[in-house]
Design brief:
single chain; three-stranded antiparallel β-sheet; globular
């Protein structure tokens, strides 16, 4: 039986920079700006990148993925494999050994009991966990001894590196979160805003949707690191202002997600104060087409299964026409430059998983879109320029986060859709709210109180099993999960769910590639999701900062303990 051959780093210590070691805190203060402000520091309560990445400075996992996509041990001594005995021969368990002497920032020991608790926390039946797919197929997590954690699976699991691997599946302290299980999880404000971690920094102050003040963890396992003694992690504003704060004014040292006009960013970099860095992984800017009815008249049941299907977006002909009308190459040109590539896939990489079955979308075809709708009998019967489907006008509310590039995209898409008889109302929502995890807010992307919404998502690591499981029927957000869930457009297919099960039990690498491509094609050809841009992460750092190895396979701040200011 063919199994995965993984590129495995030897130890986390090997990630240290080659330059002469400095002392902990010797580089002074670091200013980071994420123009989407974090609303919580508990990544299990939000699927937003800003929450996951800010929390990654504090909370850690057993293994991470470096800037090349290579899996490296982090809290673990090494990566378990079948060959070294860490993965059982029947592929039903993986056993990790926690590094010796690792403590929480409060000085207490990190033990296997914390991992058992984290699994119980995320899989509690009365709770809503944004990262639940990382524990799919896990039947139990057991503490073999204080430093040994065994994850057991209900069936052979060829790729067992999901639970507690990557920035989206960290360990949380059992003692701190003991009273936060199930429905109580969002109520534990003190823990959610100030988690005790094993990472390089500790939280000194957290003001949601604003700023996080952090300082070096005095109990961090590497005595010389982190090199920065304090960090200000500022949220809010917009991408252009964030870029200027690093490249022009010098107010900040690192700016994330610079989704701005590429010519403007190039002009900023040319001033010599900053370096722009880009990393391609699996990030895709996409449109989600709500498969449920978001009508406000339905009250609390809107955008849920109880609301019933969408009046017209469940018809794939309409979604296909909407996709055909879009000029993806122009969207790249005006908004992304070298940081983007047109794509027709929700799973664009690695190459093994990238489908070519949908490439027709790379060429805009408005005439073809109109012909498709005409042939389906979806026409404008009253002469107002808007087509109708079974008596319902094709009028959509299209929402996304507030961002200049996204608003430019919205404007172009609205114009293209008008050319095929679809009326579009545009809405943009402050990113801190849109990507927040507040179950009471009507404006989060999970609530999806609109017809269309647009944003980017990706996954940590190089294996898409957990990511593609996001579109399982039982992953719909809803009131019963406190609006947590990864199946944002409310897609559901028994055939797709069967592929999730097959992927979880398939060891052959080529067959795993086939299954992933089938999943991608099924999603894309349902036209419940319309991929637009394969996005590279684009950030900028002050020219004085060294040691940055930007990764799009994990948190891009994954090696922040090695960052330092040049002398």
């Amino acid at each position: 039986m063919k199994r995965y051959s993984l590129l495995l780093g030897a130890t986390a210590l090997a990630l240290a920079p080659a330059a002469a070691m400095a002392d902990r805190g010797s580089s002074g203060h670091l200013n980071i700006i994420y123009w989407q402000a974090p609303s919580t520091l508990n990544p299990y309560l939000s699927g937003g990148t800003k929450e996951v990445e800010s929390a990654s400075l504090i909370l850690e996992s057993l293994a991470r993925f470096d800037d090349t996509g290579t899996m490296v041990p982090w809290l673990a001594e090494s990566i378990p494999t079948v060959e070294n005995g860490g993965v059982s021969e029947d592929l039903t368990s993986i056993t990790w050994t926690i590094g010796e002497g690792i403590t929480w920032s409060d000085g207490t020991a990190l033990t296997s009991a914390d991992f058992v608790f984290t699994w119980e926390y995320c899989t509690h039946p009365e709770g809503g966990c944004a990262q639940a797919s990382y524990f799919d197929g896990v039947t139990s997590v057991e503490a073999v001894d204080d430093r040994t954690v065994r994850v057991n699976f209900g069936a052979p699991t060829p790729f067992p590196y999901t639970s507690f691997v990557g920035s989206e599946s960290p360990v949380i302290q059992a003692a701190q979160f003991a009273d936060c299980l199930g429905a109580r999880a969002p109520e534990c404000t003190e823990a959610n805003f100030g988690p005790i971690g094993t990472g390089p920094f500790v939280v000194d102050e957290f003001r949601p949707n604003d700023v996080i003040e952090m300082s070096a963890n005095p109990n961090f396992r590497f005595p010389d690191r982190p090199y920065f003694g304090t960090v200000t992690f500022k949220g809010g504003g917009d991408a252009t202002a964030a870029a200027r704060s690093v490249c022009e004014t010098g107010e900040f040292d690192y700016a994330w997600n610079l989704q701005i006009d590429p010519t403007i960013l190039a002009d900023m970099e040319a001033q010599g104060n900053c370096t722009v860095v880009t990393a391609f992984g699996t990030s895709v800017e996409r449109l989600h087409l709500n498969q449920t009815n978001p009508d406000a008249a339905l009250g609390d049941i809107r955008s849920t299964a109880e609301a019933g299907p969408h009046p017209f977006l469940t018809n794939p002909v309409i979604g296909q026409a909407m996709s055909m009308a879009i000029d993806r190459a122009l969207l790249v040109e005006i908004g992304y430059g070298a940081g983007g590539q047109p794509t027709c896939n929700v799973l664009p990489a690695p190459d093994l998983y990238a489908s070519t079955a949908n490439d027709a979308c790379l060429t805009q075809d408005i005439a073809g879109a109109n012909a498709l709708l005409d042939e389906a009998g979806i026409v404008d019967t009253d002469g107002d320029g808007i087509r109708e489907y079974e008596g319902t006008p094709l009028s959509v509310l299209y929402q996304t986060s507030t961002n200049a590039v996204r608003q430019d995209t919205q404007a172009l898409v609205k114009e293209w859709w008008s050319q095929i008889g679809i009326d579009t109302e545009l809405r943009n929502i402050d990113a801190s709210v849109f990507f927040g995890g507040d179950p009471a807010s009507p404006d989060t992307f999970q609530k999806f109180y609109a017809d269309i919404e647009m944003y980017t998502n990706n996954f940590a690591g190089v294996d898409p099993q957990a990511y593609m499981a996001n579109w399982a029927c039982d992953e719909w957000p809803g009131p019963n999960t406190q609006w947590q869930g990864s199946n944002i457009q409310r897609f559901c297919s028994e055939e797709y769910d069967a592929l999730i099960v097959e992927m979880a039990g398939t060891a052959d690498l080529e067959r795993r590639g086939e299954i992933a491509r089938m999943q991608n094609d099924m999603l894309v050809q349902s036209y419940s999701i319309i991929p637009l841009i394969h996005r590279g992460g684009v950030s900028a750092h002050a020219s004085s900062i060294e040691g940055i190895r930007m990764s799009d396979w994990d948190s891009e701040l994954w090696n922040i303990m090695d960052w330092r200011r040049a002398e």
